[in-house]
């Protein structure tokens, strides 16, 4: 198993690549996904199984889905593509619906929607399984404040029963975070909130650092972009 943080910046994109011999996993799939993947050693020329786990429906986490599917369709590869997402994520489901309804007669690959429930475990190979952890995250618009809560999952990838990697997605502090991050070999923890005070929506640096200490190694990601 190998992994690579391809990109992460709040409001722009997040994508993490995990690869084993046969399977390729992406955690979130934002803008620039094809550009980022083409810089890696991933080989698009052979048929492979893709497992794409989407934390939530905000554009900076799933906006690259259309490009990704379009690119693989263009290459004509008979891949298996599995898209996993919180079952109530209307953005992800709608994006998939649009793509499949437009191109249903010319899809070279097998595309499978895999809506997940809270704390669901999915096995993707004999040695790898992934578990969903419900997180707490809300939409927001500048100068309008918080909007409705967005169905959001953090994911842990287990390899040979060891928690190989934990990923929080976007989230405010909540009771499932410790469970998700604890004892992970690697943890990718969002630290978007630039303030010292806690928010309902994102972790600040101190909260993220405290969580990171529960893992063997960690990286703070998805810090706020500089909008100037
Ligand atoms: Zn985000
Ligand atoms: Zn978000």
Question: Would you mind describing this structure in some detail?
Answer:
The protein has helices at 33-38, 59-62, 65-75, 90-103, 176-181, 205-212; strands at 2-9, 13-19, 23-27, 49-53, 80-86, 110-116, 121-123, 128-134, 138-141, 145-149, 153-159, 162-167, 186-190, 217-221. It is of the alpha/beta class and 228 residues long. It has a single domain (2-221), classed as Metallo-beta-lactamase, Chain A. The strands form 3 sheets. The protein has a 6-stranded mixed β-sheet with strand order 1-2-3-4-5-6. Strands 7-8-11-12-13-14 form a 6-stranded mixed β-sheet. Strand 1 and strand 2 (13-19) form a beta hairpin. 38% of the residues are buried. The structure holds zinc ion (2 copies). One zinc ion is lined by residues 10, 58, 60-61, 170, 222.
What's this model, at a glance?
This protein has helices at 33-38, 59-62, 65-75, 90-103, 176-181, 205-212, and strands at 2-9, 13-19, 23-27, 49-53, 80-86, 110-116, 121-123, 128-134, 138-141, 145-149, 153-159, 162-167, 186-190, 217-221. The chain has 228 residues and is of the alpha/beta class. The strands form 3 sheets. Strands 1-2-3-4-5-6 form a 6-stranded mixed β-sheet. The chain has a 6-stranded mixed β-sheet with strand order 7-8-11-12-13-14. Strands 9-10 form a two-stranded antiparallel ribbon.
